[in-house]
Amino acid sequence: MADEPTSINLAARLIFIFKSINRAGDEEILSNVWARIFELPPTDIIQIHVHLAYVKELIRDYERQVKSLPEANQYLFLEPVPTMLTFVTTRFRKIKADRDILSRILEKLYLASDRLQQDFPETLIPAADLDDISKQINVLITSVKASQEIPNSMRVILFDLLSAIRQSIDLYSIRGIRGVRKELFAVAAQIQEQFSEFEKAQDTPEVQGFMALFKRIDLVTSGVLKVRTFLQAAAPIVVSLLEQINRTL
Questions:
Q1: CA 192 to CA 160: how far, in whole Å?
Q2: What is the CATH number of domain 127-245?
């Protein structure tokens, strides 16, 4: 069995996306291909557009990263950017019309990936950790829905926060670890805003489970990035709540 890769770069993330498009049948409509890549029903137009916005963000991040390279030939790596953005905004075009274009995009992305891997590698979250976190989120969502202990206001808060965290994990192949961290920061802000609600429900298994999940994702992602945990650096109210809930977390 081949070793699991330990790092990736922005071009490699785009390669995964555009290889998936290129594998589609000639007669397939691009909107259906995007739905399959995102593992969404083709009728879920809102979520497809949400995901496409993150693909566009990825392309723009790639563009900025390439522009920071010192090479005079960076224009080769930038050449596919406008075309990639066109794919993000196109819905009803058939794949057969774009085979040659896709081949040229992938050719440039492979060259860029080799170069970006030298200067901008991103350490991957181990697949086992991602899988375990996803399972923990799903278990918590089920528990929140069924709980008779937490008030409805707290149920809505937890469900919304868990859904946001789950989406950041589902979009990991596109947004990467910084997308997960960014969502974690947004969740921490919501915890601080809703601190009184969390404090009142701190003894419930759902709130305790949610805070344990928050801490686990913080530890995993900060460990991969080799930075201080968010709890150590910027969230004193969240730390306070964790201490009140369970000093052994």
A1: 15
A2: 1.20.1440
Give, to the nearest 10 degrees, the angle between helix 45-67 and helix 81-89. 170
- Please name every residue paired with 102 in a beta bridge, in sequence order, or none if there are none: none
As beta bridge partners, residue 8 has 122
SS3 label, residue 8: strand
Contacts of 207 (CB under 8 A, 6+ apart): 150, 154, 158, 198, 201, 245
What's the token pair of residue 103? 């081949």
Structural contact between residues 162 and 140, judged by C-beta atoms closer than 8 angstroms: yes
61-111 tens-digit pLDDT: 999 999 999 876 688 999 999 999 999 887 777 777 778 899 999 999 999
Long-range pairs of 162-167 with CB within 8 A, sequence gap ≥ 24: 162/137, 162/210, 162/213, 165/137, 165/213, 165/217, 166/134, 166/137, 166/138, 166/141
Do 144 and 158 form a contact (C-beta atoms < 8 A)? yes
Q: Indicate the domain borders of the chain.
A: 7-123, 127-245
Comparing 1 with 81, the larger pLDDT belongs to 81
Longest dimension (CA), the chain: 63
In the prediction, which pLDDT does 224 show?
86
